[in-house]
Design brief:
By secondary structure, the chain is mostly helical. It has 14 helices and no strands. It has two domains: about 70 residues, no CATH class; about 230 residues, MetI-like (MetI-like fold, Orthogonal Bundle). The longest helix is centred in the middle third of the chain and has 36 residues.
């Protein structure tokens, strides 16, 4: 197990390093003047020169990269050119919205998808199975931002149960969770549809294994065999998809956060792109990449917990 952890940590560090290099190359080395991109083509030359000095563009590329990487490792992400505040402060404020939103969405998605997938597999080619597959087709086809607009029209405009947008802060946890509920449902529906199909396929595959037939031959009912023998063996592909979905829910919440006017990380990235704040863009994209890589690392560790053969290897 120790060697497995060492290999995974080494792969994690190398992947993060390569991701940071790729982000730096795209935003600062490829053709184009970052200062001109931020100020526009009509900016005066002396203004451009001052911004280049402020951003360190007059220094060699390797020095800028090492300074940026060192700052990222120490938590010093630089100063936003638009807000004139540290990027770390901006990111911390927005993560207090985006992370709870993603966690709530993945909880809703898992609570819906796993039972539906198991029910569909246990009732293969029966009406329950066809109903789950129909739900999954509809869920995949509906864009989450459009579903969010429908939720606003029905639950906010028509019923008046929820506000149409905004976030009251965590001083009142009940009001904060209520404000996140509709966007979390909008994010969760497409992911629940995908996860239900993966769960169904995985459970069906395990149900055909010899050890399940042996358990049934010993007198176990189908329900007991599902609970004791099938579910844990069917969880590995499900855990994979859940890890990918959490990364997507954090990094892909830009549209939903804008629909519900939530001050999250996705909305910060959208605002930074519209204001051409490359400092914020670079740091937020690196954070998204690091999140995806770390979640995949945690999924690998979950594999080792679920499948003892990986620990033995």
């Amino acid at each position: 197990m120790i060697f497995l952890l060492l290999r995974r940590f080494t792969a994690l560090a190398i992947t993060l390093l390569l991701a940071s290099i790729a982000i730096f190359l795209v935003l600062e080395i490829l053709p184009g003047d970052p200062a001109a991109i931020m100020l526009g083509t009509e900016a005066r030359e002396d203004t451009l020169a001052a911004l280049r000095r402020e951003m360190g563009l007059d220094r060699p590329a390797y020095e800028r990269y090492l300074n940026w990487l060192g700052g990222a490792l120490s938590g010093n992400l630089g100063l936003s050119m638009t807000y004139k505040v540290p990027v770390a402060e901006l990111v911390a404020d927005r993560l207090a919205v985006t992370f709870p939103l993603a966690f709530l969405a993945i909880l809703i998605s898992t609570a819906m998808a796993v039972p539906l997938g198991v029910i569909a597999a246990a009732n293969h080619e029966r009406p329950a199975d066809h109903g789950v597959m129909l739900f999954s087709q509809i869920g995949v086809a509906i864009p989450n931002f459009w579903f969010g607009l429908l939720l606003i029209l029905f639950f906010s405009s028509y019923l008046g149960w929820f506000s149409a947008g905004g976030f009251p802060g965590w001083d009142d946890p009940v009001a904060a969770l209520k404000a996140l509920l509709l966007p979390a449902v909008a994010l969760a529906l497409p992911q629940a549809a995908i996860l239900a199909r993966v769960t169904r396929s995985s459970v069906l595959e395990v149900l055909g294994e010899d050890f399940v037939r042996t358990a049934r031959a010993k007198g176990l009912t189908r329900r007991v065999a599902l609970r004791r023998h099938v579910l844990r063996n069917a969880l590995i592909p499900v855990v994979t998809v859940m890890g990918m979905q959490f990364s997507f829910l954090v990094a892909g919440a830009i549209l939903v956060e804008n629909v519900f006017t939530l001050p999250g990380l996705g909305r910060l990235l959208f605002q930074a792109m519209s204001q051409r704040d490359l400092v914020v863009i670079k740091d937020v994209v690196l954070l998204f990449a690091a999140l995806v890589i770390v979640v995949n690392f945690l999924v690998d560790l979950a594999y080792a917990w679920l499948d003892p053969r990986l620990r033995q290897g």
